[in-house]
# Entry
Amino acid sequence: NAGVTQTPKFQVLKTGQSMTLQCAQDMNHNSMYWYRQDPGMGLRLIYYSASEGTTDKGEVPNGYNVSRLNKREFSLRLESAAPSQTSVYFCASRVTQGTDTQYFGPGTRLTVL
Amino acid sequence: GENVEQHPSTLSVQEGDSAVIKCTYSDSASNYFPWYKQELGKRPQLIIDIRSNVGEKKDQRIAVTLNKTAKHFSLHITETQPEDSAVYFCAADSGGGADGLTFGKGTHLIIQP
# Structure
């Protein structure tokens, strides 16, 4: 049981390049999330998917798109990376919306030059 | 949307003493309040959580209290140990039909030997 996994662990992009961050969970969770973490800012919600087939914007969605490929996988895409998107990205999942424990993946450290 | 304030940003205590971290939230509809511990370069890990129908919860050396009227909740760590050194984040569920957690900006807890 791997829990929540993310790929890649590290990535360096040039301004304007695109990339997709992958996330998968093997806990049969319905809800999945993408957060970004910047120094001194805590974690901020980018997008979430309450269940397979649905996605919604969080606090900071600009510059990102997401795809809930199936119940296990939730990807985050940067179409045209900007230096302001340099951050650590965490995927998370939980059984369902509301008061269940949210489990985090190991994170992807992204640098945009 | 929800707003979570966390204090202090840095807390230094002697080993064996107690540590208290405080958070306030803005959305009266929020009803789930987890606390996460994050070590350098690692993912956030849940250490304790509380739901709005409970005023206090304890787990060994860790306790959380919730005052819904005042919209604040606190983390208490007793008999601190070197391994308690980390960054701690409080969070609140977004409430109002939206999903995902809103995090405080974190408290860097330093345990002095």
